[in-house]
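Entry — protein

Goal — fold tokens:
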Amino acid sequence: MKFTGTDSYVATNDLMVAVNAAVTLERPLLVKGEPGTGKTVLAIEIAKALGAPLLTWHIKSTTKAQQGLYEYDAVSRLRDGQLGEERVRDIANYIKKGKLWDAFTAPQRPVLLIDEIDKADIEFPNDLLLELDRMEFFVYETGETIRAEQRPIVIITSNNEKELPDAFLRRCFFHYIRFPDRETMEKIVEVHYPGVQKTLVRDAMTVFYELRETPGLKKKPSTSELLDWLKLLMAEDLPPEALRTKEQGKLIPPLAGALLKNEQDVHLFERLAFIARRESR
């Protein structure tokens, strides 16, 4: 099967090509892009489109690569040994399987999402090189080799918080999700809010893209934030006229808390609004 997007996910042609190329090459798909552009949701939709189970490994700053393979709980075994527990005789009782183990041994070819890999330590990607390349690893405590009978579809997301090692990048198929243009964004909005008032979408989109292009903006609003904003506009039943001003790029839009997410950007628009009002006198 080829990935062509889903009813709830608008995929551009270049994204579809990237997904299908990674599946064909049996290499991890490394997806980068602005936060809120649908990188994590992509893995969910690929699994849905291909009818495959989804395994998700959310990476934190404290996550170690070994946790994706397995963890050996020596403390619990020691405690059980002191208590004379029968289960202590089998060391496998103290092996906790990781997401890669689950993906390698899944009865059906799964989609494995390694989410926000750039949050972890800089050595994290290098520590997974061999396992992702050979699709196998050795369990020292039990002496067994866990080998993937069928290579999982691996989707790795990154927000570019730190550079990834070249050796890791060589083993991936890379795709950068560009921020949607207006035409693509209208399709995304229609998928989430079918039948939404066209005039409202048109005017909201104008304000949204002008806001993103404001010089000095620290955090540009994302696709997910536009969808939240539209939901609020519809809930408040604001007319499209409320979004139309002569100084669209310089005035704070209604319900701006859905779009502006830090005080620096709020202060920026407050200053621009003050300047606009002063110049209009």
The first strand starts at residue 29 and ends at 33. Confidence is low (pLDDT under 50) at residues 246-250. The radius of gyration is 24 Å. The CA atoms of residues 212 and 220 lie 5 Å apart.
